[in-house]
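Possible race condition, two jobs.
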Amino acid sequence: MKSVLKLFSLLVIAGTMALMIPGYPPAHGRESEDKTLSPYFFVQSDDPALDRLPLKSTFAVVSIAGVIADVQVTQVYKNEGQRPIEAVYTFPASTKAVVYGMKMSIGERTIIAKVRERDQARREYEQAREQGRSASLLEQQRPNVFQMNVANIMPGDEIRVELKYTELLVPAEGVYEFIYPTVVGPRYSNQPAANAPPSEKWVQSPYLHQGQDPPYGFDITVNLVTGVPLQAISSSSHKVDIQYRGPSQAAVRLSPSEKAGGNRDFILKYRLAGGSIESGLLLYPGEKENFFLLMLEPPQRVSERQIPPREYIFIVDVSGSMHGFPIDISKKLLRDLIGHLRPTDRFNVLLFSGGSALLANTSLPATPANVTTALDLINRQQGGGGTELLPALKRALTIPRAEGFSRTVVIATDGYVHVEAETFDLIRAHLGDANFFPFGIGTSVNRFIVEGMARAGMGESFVITKPEEARGAAERFRKYIQSPVLTRVRVDFGGFGAYDIEPAGIPDVLAERPVIVFGKWRGVPEGRITIRGIAGSHDFEKQLVVNDVKPLTDNAALRYLWARHRIALLGDYEKLQPASERVKEITHLGLTYNLLTAYTSFVAIDTVVRRQGGDVTTVQQPLPLPQGVSDLAVGKGGPYAPMSMALKEAKPEMSRSEDRAQTSKRPAEKRGIVLVDLKAIVWTGDRPAEEYLTKKEKWQRYLKEVEDCYNNLLKKHPGLLGKMTVVLAIGPNGQVQKASIAASDLQHPTLEACIIQKVKSWNFPVLAGKGTMTLTVPLVFKP
């Protein structure tokens, strides 16, 4: 034990010191009423009769013709157990996708899904499930998060569910990008689970541990046909095989080595010869309505002019899901952005997780000394705790404005939150106060919130999936903010019978991407469409002759794209009430155009009763953590873990299998020990960290008490191992006022109760009027 205590003391002295942010939510106990909507780690069932991994493969076939991508996704479910199951699978989609069809196949039988109002579809599905009929239900939980339920998968069954969606590809700076999201990242939520509506239950999803491959196969093929010769094709996310079938055609297939590549977004980029953009007019003559899509290339970016004074507020996510790879990218990005500020600029930095910390109460001049201070603060971050994005945004927007400065808000996050609508509302409420430029960081970011913040805040969004992309993103950002490409944009339809036009108004064009207008048309397609605006100090005008364009039935996707754009306008930025007129209109659009929306779902029900009596077991398909995301996003620290601004990197941890192997080899006298994870002490106030480490004998006694609790249980539970985070609230007198378990792998009430009882007797140096301190102690238990 002496050697163990000595090791503990060394760990504490070398451990990570962190700054605890005043005002962060206090840690709660583990009572059921305090349980929040939080993801959890998947635990394999010991029941051999139950298949807990029914999803066997998911693959997509993508056809890109011009600027429109049509995607068919096939999910294969098979029950290799001995009991009937219902499979529940949460998966992502593109933020621009519009799902317009679904079917289910069981052997030779194929059932075409029908679109229904959401509640009605759920009722029909549940009725079929109870009757013993196979059924599938597709629901939209977010515009980029779907949930598939497949009921009554009998032992030995293989059920294939196919869904179809389409999306518009909009080039930026001459580069087209098709993105196929593969996994939903874990969403932070502090909403109590007890009163959460059914539409939010998907947040409670099971996840595999970091580094574990997806338990299902993944594949994708892309058939590309463009009207202009292709210049280059590449994938920045996966290894692919490219076969050119002509100057403007190519087939892209996933390399066989990437069958486990379903833990990160698939990204395909291509450029047309000469950097051209396929601008022009597409027409679709429907049976009842006609649709058009206008894409016109904007002018080249104007030359740099005198830049007005700028104020930048950098909001940086340092929560648990950003630990490791994502936060390393954020540091690289922020070093580049802040390091290139002009002396005439002002700036501030706000770091957030469960709480938030501000560099200064007012923005600072971008002097070398201030820049160095900010970069030093950012460099110390390691990531930990929840993701309270809304309070951070609210705090940033209350920072006093610098007189005469144009304000820009830069947000770096993976977007793993479920408060998208509230975030959009907040930004829209402050339009005119600042432009918003969100940077999505990671391999599978929540693009809905990243792109939505940009739309709501009249800015541009960026997604960075690799560290080497950070510099390029920073350079593009600087180009965007210096001057817009096109301002005061107006569209004149001059004789063309256009109506139901989206968007109703066109904001400043900040990126080198086409101006896009959707709509319907009546009568004969004729006339001239003119786009006017101001590029730099010059007038801009571009015309297109409608008579030269032939309406084509092949452009049927335009009706879905128009409806999707209209639905996004109605639903993206408003926190809707169930009875609102907007909800009714979205529901009507979904039913009219056969689309999946937040208020309409697809349901497919077999007519054959396949289960006669007995129960069906619901199985939630576990998801892999996105590549580069650590376990901190799910289980380490939990939603109440405090924000940690760590100064050092934590020691690499062993996997469970390695841990058990080491346990079997450990000498008997060293069994039953408790170690402190290297991010051990988190405190408030400004007194030196060493003050809490000078009484080594106290720390030795404290750890000995915890080990006594642990060793008493090892006699009955010799394999008990894992991690636990204890959170203490310490008063100004140094006494522990409150103690709770914020997270635990061990899930042992007796151990937790014993530890809580022990730590309440601990005492610490007097804070001398500094107020309450919160101390976080992550413990590692090794039998």
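Job #2 (started ~2 s after job #1):
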Amino acid sequence: MIVCNKIITTKHILCYDAPMDTNVNDKTSLILHGHFYQPPRENPLVDLIPKQSSAKPYSNWNERIYDDCYRANAFSRYLDTHSRVRDIVNNYKYISFNFGPTLLSWLQKYHPTAYEKILEADKASIERLGFGNAIAQSYNHTILPLSNPRDSETQILWGIDDFTSRFKRAPLGLWLPETAISSSVVSQLAKAGISFVILSPWQCKAIETSDKEFKSVDATEVPYWEPFILEGTNGSNLSAFFYYPDLASSISFGHMLRDADAMYNKLLEMKNNNKAPLIHTATDGEIYGHHEPFGDMALAALIRKVTENNSFELTNYSAYLEKNRPKRRAVLHDGEDKKGSSWSCSHGVSRWYKDCGCHTGGEKGWNQKWRTPLREAFDNLATKIDAIYDESINHIFKGKVDPITLLNGYSSVISKREDALSYIKKWEKIGGITITNRQEVATLLEGQRLKHYSFTSCGWFFSDIAGIEPTQNIFFGVRALSLYSQFTKEDLLKEFLNTLSEAKSNKKYEGSGKNIALHHLEKDPGEVEAAAYFLMNQNFGRKEDYKKMYGKYELIAFNTLADNKFACEVTDTVTLKSDYVVMDVNADIHFGYQVSMQFLDTLTKKPLVKEFGVAQIPEAMLEEAYKWIELSLSRISDEELKHIAEAIRHYSLLSKSGNYAINDSLYIENMGTCLRALRSLFTTPDTLPWTAKRESICYLLGFIKRKGRRHENEIVDEIFTQEIERVASVINSEGFTYDNGSYLLELLKVASTQEISVSTTIAQEALYDYIIGDKKDTLVTPLTVELINQLKVALNFSLEIN
């Protein structure tokens, strides 16, 4: 989400509200804020992100943007004149930032090293400034002014709780999704203990003058160098920083991140022209590397330039606010229908409930009239879900537990700090009651989470209802509705579908929101997808590949009942529901299934689908199954490997003469055997050490590199890159040793001599702290020092690093 619709110049700053007189030789406070966020993308039936073809070559958009931006900013390269790595900078140490809680949960699970770097950055900024760079965000990016007071309070409290649990401190600031705000939201933030927010100057309607009068301003006139007081509906207040729009525009639209020197000179120009004590701005964090390729490196270079000179001091909002308390009040625009304002809709917050004209993408003649019925469908459903939830919780806990308090504390389960069963038992103790239907409580809470996720702002931001984001929101809504249908006699589905039928796609073949909802209703139950996963895992994989979890499903038992007949017991760890799935498999990997309870689908009133075949296997699951097969095929013993290498050497010698045409079938067979053998080197356990089989490896590689086509050479590149990254991961988790360092160096040497194209990115990041001497977890000896120096060269680090 790009943040600024207009570009202004410094000459538009009005002199009547000029900043305090500042000596240009004094250091100017500089704050660059990055809003890092991705919407929840998981399939709610299994709690896994499906493969997203539009994110190719990555499996999904989280992975793609992680590589472009989130990891890149934790390990940003600063290069010397020979394009060698001079420094690896954790940019998060120097910028103000917030991360969406759903994104942080994903990072913690799938990329813990980068996740830890983000937490480390906040700690480092506390040591440097006394206050942390990180601020909180309301939970899953809903537009708070459009939420009912109950939901907006939950969003704020979930966000604060998630932040506190991760960063081990209470947040002073909170990022509002799309900076959407209203006076009621101000009151809720103040009540929750939040001190400040960051807003767009386009949201400011008037500011208080020295004579206590209010003067109307436009965005070009808002003094960005001082915080202001915002008043809520009940006399409460908090501070607001209005960012500098010229700088935001230059970063987001003006390609400022293509040249760190030009960016620094631009900042100097702002400093000299405006003589302000503070220059600050806010943009989507994804601009630093994703929207602007290599933007993270420009940021790292700018950070270095700032820290090496005396014109600016990189700080954060909390530290600045401590020394510069607001003295004047500001009044915000009410927005259309007096619903509030935001940074990406010039009409207020209309973008998230009607066809206001703001959109991203789309074709000529398209409209966004679908936004209104989409929100109405969710609003109506939410009202009914809340009523069912309150009544059910009061009944189950006999009125001794407040339903809203129970829900507001559920963030500990959503953030995976506590399991659902433990959470429910804790509230039984608080209420002084033991309940027998814990599964119902877990289901009610999970349905509330999904209700909240259905309001994620991205569902209305773009051009058409058939896009990834609106479709995902509808999926969350459908799942919430499915879970709640068992608690009421009312037909929740009928009204929901009727309203969605009015949300027409601009692509006629997509139909309406109703078609999208019906498509999700046709999906196989989560327990069946999980059972299919465990069936293939147990039959296709090796013992070391066996898994106990598939998304939120835990494998309790797997049994072979007869030839081609299997039984699988799985538990949904979120709703606590257990299922016993019997699978009768035929030769085409097609199986019928039955679950432990025979029942009609509570929504469609039709029997559940009872067939699951290859066509139903999710693409991500299919890829993993292929990997198990590939690993099974690559199990080659040391003795067999030696025989294969000798045979390949003989074949290579004979084929060099060229006097006799090479047998094509033998060539194809040999190439496949070589690749199998090569992969087995790194995937077959308990084999000889690398040094004992290096000669065999070189025979295999020599044949592949001489005779292989591009695709076969790319497989070799992938095999070596994966092994290098595996060793780097071991160094990250277990520390550097002479043995793992020597092995890594051997891999790099072979890759170099055999002209194998490998990625050393992860290895550079694992070794950097050892190379600069910051890591002290290894025994320092002349041998290890020499090894690290060799790795420094092999990993393309600058020779200037000591």
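The longest strand covers residues 553-562.
Logs attached separately.
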